[in-house]
Amino acid sequence: MTIALIAQEAGVSVPTVSKVINGRPEVAPETRRKVERLLLKHGYTRRTTLGDGPVGLIDLVFTELESPWAMELIRGAESATREVGAGIVISVMHTHAGPGRDWFDRVAARRTDGVIIVSSRLSASQYGHLNARSIPFVVVDPEGEPAPDVASVGATNWHGGLAATRHLLELGHRRIGMIGGPPDMLCSRARIDGYRAALETAGIPVDPALIHYGDFLVGSGHDRAHDLLSLPEPPTAIFAGSDLQAFGVFEAARQRGLRVPENLSVVGFDDIPLARSAWPPLTTVRQPLQEMAALAARMVLAMSRGEPLETRRVELATSLIVRDSTAAPRP
Amino acid sequence: MTIALIAQEAGVSVPTVSKVINGRPEVAPETRRKVERLLLKHGYTRRTTLGDGPVGLIDLVFTELESPWAMELIRGAESATREVGAGIVISVMHTHAGPGRDWFDRVAARRTDGVIIVSSRLSASQYGHLNARSIPFVVVDPEGEPAPDVASVGATNWHGGLAATRHLLELGHRRIGMIGGPPDMLCSRARIDGYRAALETAGIPVDPALIHYGDFLVGSGHDRAHDLLSLPEPPTAIFAGSDLQAFGVFEAARQRGLRVPENLSVVGFDDIPLARSAWPPLTTVRQPLQEMAALAARMVLAMSRGEPLETRRVELATSLIVRDSTAAPRP
DNA sequence: CAGAGGATCCGAAAAGTTTCGGCTAGACTT
DNA sequence: AAGTCTAGCCGAAACTTTTCGGATCCTCTG
Question: What are the chain B neighbours of A247 within 8 Å (beta carbons)?
Answer without folding.
Answer: 274, 277
